[in-house]
Design goal:
The chain is mainly alpha-helical. It is elongated. The chain has a two-stranded antiparallel sheet. It has a two-stranded antiparallel sheet with strand order 3-4. The protein has a two-stranded antiparallel sheet with strand order 5-6. It is built from eight helices and six strands, in the order ααββαααββααββα.
Length: 196
C-alpha cells in the first residue's frame, strides 16, 4: 500500500459498527493482520474518537500520556477479545491492565458537614477509560455476549465484532468493506481459474 493510501485510510472517519465501544476502540489500529494503520496518532485523534464514541459531550484536551494509556487499553481489549474468540485464557498482563482501567472512578461522592452529598468528577478521561474497560468486561464476562464475539475473516483485517445477525453466521466485520473485498477477490480468482 502506498504512503498516500495509508494516509487516506488513517484520515478516514472512525467506525462504530463492531457492536460495542470497547470493540470499536480495538479496531482503531486497522489491518493488524497485515499492514497496521494507526488511527490514534495524536492526542487530538484520541479526543475526536472519544467524542465520536459519545464518551465526551464536547472535545476534551488529551495529554500524550493519556493517548498512550488509551492505546494500551485498546491493545489489551483486542488481545483479550482474540483469546475469548479462540476460547483460550487471556494473558495476565492484559487482564491486569483492563481491570485497573475498570477500577477508575467515574465520580467521587463527598459528604459535607451539613450531611449534603456532592459529587466530584474524576475527570472526563478517567470516566472514558473506566467506561470502555467496563464495556469490555461486560462482553468478555458474559457467556452469551462472549459467544457472539467473532474475528473478521478478511485476511488483512482481523477486527473483532459481535455477531448479532439472525443466524449468527456473519463472517466479516463489515459486509460493505471486508465482505465486499473478500467477494471481489473470490470472483477474480474464479475468473482467473476459468481462463486457465
Amino acid at each position: 500500500m502506498t504512503p498516500a493510501a495509508l494516509q487516506r485510510l488513517a484520515n478516514a472517519k472512525f467506525r462504530f459498527t463492531y457492536g460495542s465501544n470497547a470493540l470499536n476502540l480495538a479496531v482503531t489500529l486497522r489491518r493488524r493482520a497485515s499492514e497496521p494503520v494507526e488511527l490514534l496518532v495524536t492526542p487530538e485523534d484520541a479526543s475526536r474518537w472519544l467524542n465520536a464514541a459519545g464518551l465526551f459531550e464536547e472535545p476534551v484536551r488529551i495529554r500524550e500520556s493519556e493517548l498512550l494509556e488509551l492505546r494500551e487499553l485498546r491493545d489489551a481489549i483486542y488481545c483479550i477479545g482474540h483469546a475469548a474468540s479462540e476460547q483460550r485464557p487471556p494473558s495476565a498482563s492484559d487482564l491486569r491492565l483492563l481491570n485497573q482501567a475498570a477500577r477508575r472512578s467515574e465520580a467521587l461522592p463527598q459528604l459535607g458537614d451539613d450531611w449534603s452529598v456532592r459529587t466530584l468528577r474524576a475527570g472526563a478521561f478517567n470516566t472514558a477509560i473506566a467506561t470502555l474497560a467496563r464495556d469490555a468486561i461486560a462482553i468478555f464476562g458474559s457467556d452469551s455476549e462472549r459467544s457472539l464475539l467473532r474475528t473478521c475473516e478478511q485476511s488483512d483485517c482481523g477486527g473483532l465484532f459481535l455477531d448479532r445477525s439472525r443466524g449468527e453466521r456473519r463472517r466479516w466485520c463489515s459486509m460493505a468493506r471486508c465482505g465486499n473485498r473478500a467477494k471481489v477477490a473470490a470472483f477474480r480468482k474464479r475468473q482467473k481459474e476459468e481462463r486457465s
